[in-house]
Amino acid sequence: MLDADESVELRALQARAYGRSGALSEAEAARLRELEAGSVRGAEPPLPEAAEPRHAHTVPAASGGVDVGGDEVSVSGAAGATVTPHVDSAYAALRQHWRLAVVITVVFAVAGLVLGWLIFADRGPAPMQLTAQQEEWQGTIVASGGFDAGSVRAMAQEEDVVIWFATKNESADVCLVLGYEDVTAPACTTREQAMVLGVNVTLTKPVGQNQNYDVQAQMFLTGDGEPAVITRSYITSPQSTSMFASVEEADAATMLAEQTELDRRTIQVVGYDDQVPIWTGVDSSTQRYCLVYDGSMPDPPMACDDSLMLADADRTLVLDIAHDGETTRYEYQFGYGQQYLTVTRGWESDDAARE
Fold first, then answer.
1. pLDDT, tens digit, 9 for 90 and up, residues 250-277
2. How far is CA 349 from CA 16, 320, 344, in A?
3. Where are the domains of the chain?
4. pTM for the whole thing?
5. What is the pLDDT of residues 74-126, one digit of tens each?
6. CB half-sphere exposure, 351, CA atoms < 13 A
């Protein structure tokens, strides 16, 4: 058993050894082992000689307080309380180095996020999938040797015409190439010009007797230098200045010319009412300008202007169609100003709605 002075000394050494930042010299650690051995003799064997006292942990049965060097330390307040000096050293080491453990965990977490982004991040639109025939077209373009190696890539297609992007002169120039079968239409300019004015190309693709698809593509460069392409196409004929959205629409214009006296070269669509086309054309015999509804039936509804074609003032053609008790008015303004079609349903009513 320890006397009063030894008990005070033991508590002071324990406070220094087991505190959050406690540490003992070799001599003090040996003295602590000696005092602890004396205090628990008969209850538990003393700590092994090789054990480090700073890794031990005392669990008192009851605690009081005694001021030792200005620090409040816990002491056993019950006689015969069991003191357990053995503690898992790994836990103590983790307690001392918890900041390092947190830093390592964060580093691995960030590394995992970066790796995941590198693997799964969206890199922009996926490359266009080419058919075997289109790959042959691309091979011909690459073999021409006019573009930087590895720069030719397909971006889109319009009516089976493929639109490629490429560079020249070590990426100083950018190019837009349209290709269909053995016909290609390339256009190139500097990157600076492409950022401001873009690049425009048109390719004509035959689709039938006296009919062609004119496919147009326009390319600009985004702020980070990536190409952005707009495409459009329409049916044209060498015998006409009119343009149509599809082969079916062009065929309907031919049928309309056969059913009326309108000149086939002047017939065109000026608007739609739902899916019904509204046409205009010039009467072959009278040279009057006419507005026609639908055109898919014999003797279609139409209205013609009696004024001269070369009049300076803008003019308006008006055609009324009655259906299911409701009248719809079609007004087409044309001439030398802006041309547009207005569709008015129930125009006889006070609450006529304009579309």
1. 888 888 988 888 998 889 999 999 889 9
2. 99, 14, 10
3. 4-87, 132-237, 258-354
4. 0.50
5. 433 433 434 444 444 544 554 555 555 555 665 556 455 544 444 443 334 45
6. 0
